[in-house]
Amino acid sequence: MNFILSNNLFAENGILERIHTIIKEDGYSFPLCMVDEGFSSSEYWNTIKKNLEKEFKEFNIIEVSGKEEPSYDSLRTYLDESKNFKVDVILGIGGGSCMDVAKAVGGLLNNEGDPIEYRGFDKVVNGGIPVYLSPTTAGTGSEASFNASLVDKDSNKKLGINGINMFAKKSFLDGKTTVSCPRMPSVGASVDAIVHSMEGYICNNSNLFSDMYAETSLKLMINSILDLNSELPSLEHRLNLLKGAYLAGVVQMNSGSGVAAAISYPLSVYYKVPHGIGGGMFVLGIARFNEEKGFKKYENLYRLIEEPFAEDFLSHMEILFSKLDVPNNLSTFGIRVSEKEHICEVMKTQQPAFDQNPYKFSAEKDFPNFIGNYLS
User: Fold this and answer.
1) Is the full-model pTM beyond 0.85?
2) Residues 149, 369, 271, 81: what is their CA dihedral angle, to the nearest 10 degrees?
3) For residues 128 and 108, is the Cβ–Cβ distance under 8 A?
4) Is a pLDDT exceeding 90 seen at residue 140?
5) pLDDT value of position 151
6) Half-sphere exposure of residue 61, counting CA atoms within 13 Å on the CB side?
């Protein structure tokens, strides 16, 4: 068994108000902040930025778009812009896309060639610029993993830059960063983390350590996620969501994903379905598929729920997702039954990920019937 973990984590509400001091004490003088364009309009970012500007004579900012999945095309643009500055540390503050871009830029600043040449694992041979990350949504767990997911627009495939030199040097979880994010993007991100932990928990590559991380992640997420429906957010719940998402990122990195996450990837590329919501739409359906085959492991998770809505784990999750307005039909995204043939065709590329499911799930035989439940 091989379990990968390589990151210094700091979890404390308000810690980013001291990030300028932390960077200075770590010996850096030329920080480049890559900040999500949505977070850049928040009051909290304004406080963080003012502190950084006072501390450093040369402090630069690049705003990263979160409107679509990051691609190799957009990475080239960000990388070229970064080369205009003197940089000895990168601070990435944003959602998963922003953090992935920050990791990729940090990894490639000391490596020559086109970014597309670094697709795959451990292609980034030379250590890059140190990267510090702070998530503004509790979702992908990018701050914990060695993956930077990017879309190759020529092939319409998500092929990331991954490997040991892609870890962030430090990660900072601060519930105050999540408050300014709109509700549904926050829901999508947190549901994505739940999908990572649920699928990592049951996939064929799961192990003792990934199961421990998955259970703790789910306990934190499930019992705090309804705070996203509250008009007055609880910073304690928000920090719990960030902790759970961090652990979920570790689970996914070590166990892999499952069917639901795999289905969401082509849907995000071809139909712009938000990845987190996409996985959330299907994860409970896949769980029911496995349950009907005789799979019992989900039963272990019921004890994690503090205030259950039902008498079993999956029923509780169905009610929870309903309260969070997770869609149950692709028509929400303008996808109709007329698209079924195309969806089934592109989904054949996901069979290796489908094979991680504890019971055989065939892209050719099982998927067409399954996806029909989500089309009208």
Assistant:
1) yes
2) 0
3) yes
4) no
5) 86
6) 17
Residues of the chain with CATH 1.20.1090.10: 183-372
* CB proximity list for 194: less than 8 A, separation 6 or greater: 218, 221, 222, 225, 248, 280, 283
Question: Which residue type does 75 have?
Answer: L
Calpha distance 8→128 (Å, rounded): 17
- Residue 260's nearest CA partner among 155, 120, 371 is 371
Which has the closest alpha carbon to 3: 199, 159, 214?
214
Phi/psi-derived region of residue 246, left when phi > 0, alpha when psi is between -120 and 50, beta in every other case: alpha
Architecture of domain 8-178: 3-Layer(aba) Sandwich (3.40)
Q: Which of 61, 112, 63 is nearest to 87 (CA)?
A: 61
Q: Beta-carbon neighbour count of residue 136 at 10 Å?
A: 30
Beta bridge partners of 134: 93
Amino acid in position 288: R
Using a pLDDT cut of 90, give the percent of the chain over it.
90
pLDDT in tens, 268-285: 989 999 989 999 999 999
Phi-psi region for residue 264, left (φ > 0), alpha (ψ -120 to 50) or beta?
alpha
Strand partners, 71: 151
338 CB-near residues (< 8 Å, 6+ apart): none
Residues of the chain with CATH 3.40.50.1970: 8-178
* Residue 7 binned pLDDT confidence (cut-offs 50, 70, 90): confident
The one-letter amino acid at 86: K
Regarding predicted confidence, which is higher, 140 or 10?
10
E strand segments, 37-130? 60-64, 89-94, 120-121
User: What three-state secondary structure class fits 44?
Assistant: helix
CA nearest to 222, candidates 304, 126, 290, 319: 304
What is the rounded distance in angstroms from the CA atom of residue 31 to the CA atom of residue 267? 36
Structurally, at CATH architecture level, domain 183-372 sits in: Up-down Bundle (1.20)
**Radius of gyration of the chain from Cα atoms?**
20
Which residues sit opposite 321 in a β-bridge?
Answer: none
